[in-house]
Design a protein that fits this description.
With 94 residues, the chain is mostly helical. 45% of the residues lie in helices and 0% in strands. Helix 1 (9-16) packs antiparallel against helix 2 (24-35) and helix 2 (24-35) packs antiparallel against helix 3 (43-64). The longest helix is centred in the middle third of the chain and has 22 residues, at 43-64.
Length: 94
């Protein structure tokens, strides 16, 4: 896409694609950059903002680690990890 071209829904989808939690916030930043010059009510901006919300949920869900069981200390390589606690809990691994 060149600067003279207006972003499309296809452009947004190409960026978001098969986003993974690990890259959700980097992709979010690229989508924000893509739509930065679009008016508030532009259909592509509104679509992109819905994808940005999804990326926020995707990134937050994995960084919070608030649900599910903790990994067992017997897991291979466990002794090399600094922490295995849930979000906002003190480290439970020394």
């Amino acid at each position: 896409m060149t600067d003279a071209m207006e972003p499309t829904i296809h452009d947004v989808d190409a960026l978001v694609g098969a986003a993974t939690p690990h890259f959700a916030y980097q992709i979010r930043a690229r989508v924000l950059h893509l739509i930065r010059d679009l008016p508030d009510q532009h259909s592509v901006r509104r679509y992109a903002e819905s994808r940005i919300e999804m990326l926020d949920r995707l990134g937050c869900a994995t960084c919070q680690a608030e649900e599910g069981p903790l990994e067992p200390a017997s897991r291979l390589g466990w002794d090399t990890l600094k922490s295995h606690g849930r979000a906002r809990e003190p480290s439970t691994h020394s």
